Amino acid sequence: MQIPYEVTPRRDTGLFNAKLGIWLFLASEVMLFGGLFSAYVFLRAGVREGIDIPWPNGTDVHGYSFASGEFGVWIGFLNTLVLIASSVLVVMAWASLKTGNWRKFQLYMWGVLISAGIFMVNKGYEYNQKFKHFGVRLVDGTLVDGYLVHDEEHGHNGERITFNASTIEFALSRSNKERVSTYFLDGRFFEKNPDATITLTKFKAEEKDGKFGFEPDGETEALPFSEVEGKLLEMEKLLKNEAESFVAAERKRIKEEAAATPASERAPGWANELRKKIAGVSPLDRPVVTGTLSAPIEFQLKAKDIINRRYQADSIPLFGGNFLKGELVEDMVDLEVHTLDFQMTRNDQESMAWALLGNEEKAYRDGYHHYHEERYKEFSKWVAKGGQIPNDKLRLWKHIHPYKESGGEDPHHTYPIVSIPRDQIRFMSNHGPAFGPYFAIYFTMTGLHGLHVICGAVVLAYFLFFGKKMYDSGERGREHLANRVEVGGLFWHFVDLVWIFLFPIMYLM
Amino acid sequence: MSAAAATHDEAHDHGHDDHDHHDPPFWRKYIFSTDHKMIGMQYGITGLIFLGIGFFLMMIMRWSIAYPGEPIPVLWRFLGEQWAPGGVVSPDFYNIGGAMHGTIMVFLGIVPLAFGAFGNYVTPLQIGAPDMAFPRLNMASFWFYFLGGGLMFASFFLDSGAAKVGWTNYSPLATTTDTAYTKWGLFWTGQTQWLMAMVFLITSSLLGAVNFISTIINLRAKGMSWMRMPFFCWAMLVTGFLLLLAFPPLEVAAIMQLMDRVAGTSFFLPTGLYVGGDLVHATGGGSPLLYQHLFWFLGHPEVYVLILPAIGIVAEIVANNTRRPLWGYKTMVGAVMVLGFLSFIVWAHHMYLTGMGSAISTFFQTTTVLISIPSVILITSLLISMWGGSIRFTMPMLWATAFIPMFGIGGLTGLPLAFNLIDLHLHDTYYVIGHFHYVVAPGTIFALFAGIYYWYPKQTGRQMNKLLGHLHFWPSLICMNLIFAPMFVQGMAGMHRRAYDGGAAYEQISSQVWLTADNPFTKFFNFIFRDGAYVDLQVIDLNILTSFGAWALALAQVPFIINFFSSVFFGKKTNSDNPWQGTTLEWSCPTPPPHGNFTKEPVAYRDPYEYSVPGADTDFTPQFEPDSDEAPKEEPEPEPAKA
Fold first, then answer.
1. Range in A193-202, B380-389, B606-615 with the lowest mean pLDDT
2. What CA–CA distances, in Å, run from A281 to A246, A248, A255, B61?
């Protein structure tokens, strides 16, 4: 069976199938990116001054100065040029096929693929820069921005959460077994204490006043950690069996009792009542098993291990319903500060950030004032004429880059390192998607666009590497391949077009 | 192969060859098939199974609604202590049931059946094409759907259960539900997997839409000009455009919500959001309203995706069984296009309660009222087509006839909802459920049944059993009304659609008396359900009526299931390729149609519904019957593309 108009266009529509298909597909792509662009406008226009975090200027996020080492705008610009060039190249590749020049087709198509490669490498560099960058928003709104200080020796990743645990509470449930193993027994927490042991409370199922419950029933002997998981599973199984046999026996008793009632004495709704009674005897919730450690153990934790970061000075909830009980020793974030940003601070002079800087506070305050004066001078002529400094400019002045220059032959900047206690932190994240609505939409849109680039490149590469057979199969095959390249090229143009919109709204505006 | 191979003649020669000489292996023919008919049937059977699952969920919910706090018979054993502690359906499972009933019915049941199954099977046959324009894409489309459906179904068995915040999945609730898991654990929650599954389903629909539109535009047979196209194909074309353009914004919403859940973004989370007394660890600055806009930009056209194929099916059956041309065919085509266009600018009538502002509400109120015009044109045309005709009440025609008033009730009860003043009262009440379900359940699903009975002989060569058909139809019709009519009463009394215990906890509303104890209906009701007690009928008591209606409806589907499978073997043989004496092209090809569909080149010589033409020998003059007086409208031979 041959589908008509696979290669030759239909007379009245002037289109071969794939070309019609790709235009329709592009229409849906327009709606897809249209939805995202609308979301961008909706989110940006919806920022409420003083309530939501401000929408940054693209140039400030990416930087355009080679001197400071931040030149993301130029990388974005380079990517724009690269994509435009590749769009031209894909047309040349198509034209070469149409004129029957396979060598040239190969050459141009390689150009397209290399362009796509350059684009993605640049993108990767850009992403990487952002993922390394870290920001901490204090509870008064001040943003302390910089890089986490890694402490390889103690295994800290910039965050220091030390918890001195004396007991661990394990939730007994079927689904918990992997989690126990993941969080406690893979050696991550316990390898430093190979000799420590743990004693678990034992339980037995008991009936009390017609209700079922679990009562503590002594303790296990001290177990090494490697045996805890097995023991927990054993307990879980045992308790489950006990509970189930309790339930089964009770249900049997109710049924027998009911069966003894003569049919004549059965009231309306009798069956319903009986069913309620039977179902009411439900299997029991398994109790929480407390494990007492032979000696308190110091845990080094990461915030992401802790369920919803909801922890207190004496207990840490871990995933799977398990808890560490004990004492929180320290809870700090170590940051090398590159920027202090007071846009969201009610009073920049009284910001909590100053106190964090310790001894050198005054020097940085002076720097901040100096920076303000400099900026003001830039605008003073304008102000002298009676003009006003635009609000967003004023807002942007509210940040400083605190650093000291070290002398010597190769002068470089040193930045202050601060330790921020957890209770002063409202939010922290790297400059990834979570860092704010701008970053969210930036990563979503450029990420989705990047996926389009990769998919497009894969399809075009397929034509380049596997198209020869079709090309050599005669007039029709050659035409067919040219059509395919044309369709792929149309998609490629669309990908380029999306970037041409993305670049200004993400990098410049 | 020469360039000329693309012409019709050669195409069909190939079709013949393939069929006669080399049958593809089993897995190519029945599983990874590229044949539009097989794909259509795959869609159909998968869709029917999901329809059953969605219905089953609803029956569990109906127990909990009718008998709040009472253990559910038999099923509590399967739900286990997590979802039915003490045998009583838990609020969480009730919520899962609600969310998944909606999702499964809309995205996994009706759209695949209406668009995927009937569209795939019938459209190429009706326009005289050997297959869809992109057969392999068609297969991919089905398998994406299957993957999405499988994932959606599998999410029931996750620790967290399936998605549970309503089929609309509104943020911020959807973002902050079930977050007590590890990073990977969070990914493997029902709420996240709902989004993943939706991405697959949307991809499937997009590929399907591209395929349908391309097929209809480019693969029409010789002589099949636009105005000779059966109305069903027009409906599919417009539906295709709705899917193509409306689904991407939902994909955007799904991607953004996915980012909110797993990457910690705040697209839909406002600043300063507290959940359970804790400040959410997110930057905020997002907009919950944005989600609703994106969702309903899909959501409303989606309703027409559900209903247009149904109207298409009914139009075919009405024309065939009244033995008259469709009245106002061209007007109907115009109406369906206007309907398609307008459906894109009415979405915010779902959001009157969000406080968008009265100017916006007024705009959407106006467009919403406007959209009733083309809808009424369609239904009126169908009615006038039937007016004065000597109607053959065949099995499909019964369903099609019932469709019209049922859809009418659904449509007309929608009008009050269009006005934002009235909507403030009715919003999120059972009234809305009643309205929507009248459109889709006795509306679309009846049309789908009509379609199954109508095209069944084309595939199997046998008719479905008539007795079983009647046993299916009449109870279904009665039960559908038993289920949905009381909802209008409850809704107007103010009962909320999502109350877990069927509204028992909201006594001021649910205990309102609808009919006093003296009313004969109340007496009848009490006689049946309450041992003849002399008590008033409160609006909450209607839950019992509705629930029994639902369970009876389930029983009414048993004859259909038996009929559907047994008629393949025992049904009455048709002994003809055109058992209904239809006029459209699908009746010209062999039964069942081979791979490639037509044994000789199909040509459309005339309009699609030439029934009872004065002076003709029979009361139907098929499109494919050459007429010696009238030369076929020549379509110029396609030219090879310029090199």
1. A193-202
2. 9, 9, 12, 22
Cβ–Cβ of A29/B14 closer than 8 Å?
no
Alpha-carbon Rg for chain B, nearest whole angstrom, is 26
DSSP assigned state of B614: T
Contacts of A447 (CB under 8 A, 6+ apart): none
Tokens of residue B35, six digits: 């044949």
Chain A touched by B531 (CB under 8 Å): yes
Inspect the interface and report whether the beta carbons of A9 and B10 lie closer than 8 Å: no
3-state secondary structure at position A281: coil
The pLDDT of residue A250: 85
B614 and A CB contact within 8 Å: no
Instruction: Establish if B533 touches chain A: CB-CB under 8 angstroms.
Output: no
Which residue shows structure tokens 């898991």?
A: B181
The neighbour count for residue B136, using CB atoms within 10 Å, is 11
Q: How many CB atoms lie within 10 A of CB A462?
A: 12
More confident residue, B557 or A194: B557
What letter represents residue B15's amino acid?
G
**Mean pLDDT rounded to a whole number for chain B:** 91
Rounded CA separation B366/A1 (Å)? 50
Contact B172, B270 (CB under 8 A): yes
**pLDDT of A178 above 80:** no
What is the 8-class DSSP label of residue B604?
Answer: -
pLDDT tens per residue across span A277-297: 887 777 677 788 888 888 888
CA B123 – CA B134 distance, rounded (Å) = 14
A123 falls in which pLDDT band (50, 70, 90)?
A: very high
What are residue A199's phi and psi, to 5 degrees? -110, 130
Q: Which of A193-202, A347-356, B30-39 has the lowest mean pLDDT?
A: A193-202
Q: A487: which residues sit within 8 A by CB, 6+ positions away?
A: A18, A19, A21, A22
Give residue A189's pLDDT. 60
Q: pLDDT of B76-94, one tens digit each?
A: 888 887 888 878 899 999 9
Highest averaged pLDDT of the listed ranges A286-290, A310-314, B78-82, B356-360: B356-360
The predicted model gives A213-239 an average pLDDT of 81
- pTM of model > 0.80: yes
Positive or negative, the CA dihedral B523, B529, B533, B536 is: negative
Q: What is the DSSP string of B178-212?
A: T--S-HHHHHTSHHHHHHHHHHHHHHHHHHHHHHH
Instruction: State the nearest Cα–Cα gap between B285 and chain A, in angstroms.
Output: 5
Q: Count of A–B CB contacts within 8 Å?
A: 243
d(CA B247, CA B297): 8
CA pair distance B36, B122, nearest whole angstrom: 9
CA A476 to chain centre: 49
Instruction: Give the 3-state secondary structure of B103-156.
Output: HHHHHHHHHHHHHHHHHHHHHHHHHCCCCCCCHHHHHHHHHHHHHHHHHHHHHH
Exposed e or buried b per residue across A389-428, where buried means at least 16 C-beta atoms within 10 angstroms of its C-beta: eeeeeeebbbbbbbbeeeeeeeeeeebbebebebebbbbb
| Interchain CB contact of B5 with A (< 8 Å) | yes
DSSP helix/strand/coil, A183: helix
**ipTM rounded to 2 decimals:** 0.92
Q: Between vectors from CA A449 to CA A445 and to CA A450, what angle results, nearest 5°?
A: 115
- Token code pair at residue A377: 């001078």
B598 lies within 8 A of chain A by CB: no
The strand pairing partners of A330, in sequence order, are: A162
Q: Among candidates A107, A1, A488, which has minimal Cα distance to B593?
A: A1
pLDDT tens-digit readout, B272-319: 999 888 888 899 999 999 999 999 999 999 999 999 999 999 999 999
pLDDT at B8: 43
